[in-house]
Amino acid sequence: MRASGHSLVELVIVVAIIATMAAVALPFFRPMVADAHLLGAAREFCSSFRLAASAAVRSNVYTAIRFERDTDRVRYAVYRDGDHDGVRSDDIARGRDTLLEGPYPLGTGSTVRVGILPGTPAIPPERGLLSGDPIRFGRSDILSFSPLGTATPGTFYLAATARRRPSASLVARPASAS
């Protein structure tokens, strides 16, 4: 009778084939993982975006998302207007405009960051390539929501660091007050 099973040599050959296939496939999966991290960071921010917009309408008071920059990180927090003049940096510093949630880091550090990748085309009607500040809401870093449902127009850009092509952006445009 012959014993059934596989020899150690056959097992080593199968493991070597699987390891080789994994090593060849890994570079193709990195961009997909980077895109998943980018999408997750954008979805996380969008939930705060919706919270701030709905809080403004629901409570009939201005709310805002303020972007705060450290040396290499960007954080954001949601604030509520406390003195009926809109959410302002000086009012936040004095405690007049109160914190609703946050601050949260924007991006995941090693895989997602706030930034514009080289070669990212401008959003129409602008032409050319984007450059400069990746957070643009007028002259400040505050995205404001009114009780009427409108918002400060502007953009911010999240970049997947493992990608070589342009990445995602969020564009906030004011809604018409009907």
Structure description:
The protein has two helices and eight strands; from the N terminus they run αββαββββββ. With 178 residues, it is an alpha+beta fold. The chain has one domain (9-172): 3-Layer(bab) Sandwich (minor pseudopilin epsh fold), CATH 3.55.40. The strands form two sheets. A four-stranded antiparallel sheet has the order 3-2-1-6, with helices on one face. Strands 4, 5, 7 and 8 form a four-stranded antiparallel sheet that branches. It is elongated. It starts with 7 loop residues before the first helix and ends in a 6-residue tail after the last strand. The model is unreliable at 170-178 (pLDDT under 50).
Keywords:
alpha+beta; 33% helix; elongated; minor pseudopilin epsh fold; single chain; 178 residues; four-stranded antiparallel β-sheet; 2 helices
Overall pLDDT? 80
Strand content: 15-25%
CATH architecture assignment? 3-Layer(bab) Sandwich
Order of the strands making up the biggest sheet? 3-2-1-6
Structural class: alpha+beta
Radius of gyration: 24 Å
Helix content: 25-40%
Enumerate how many helices there are, as a single number.
2
Query: Main sheet, how many strands, which sense, barrel?
Result: 4 strands, antiparallel
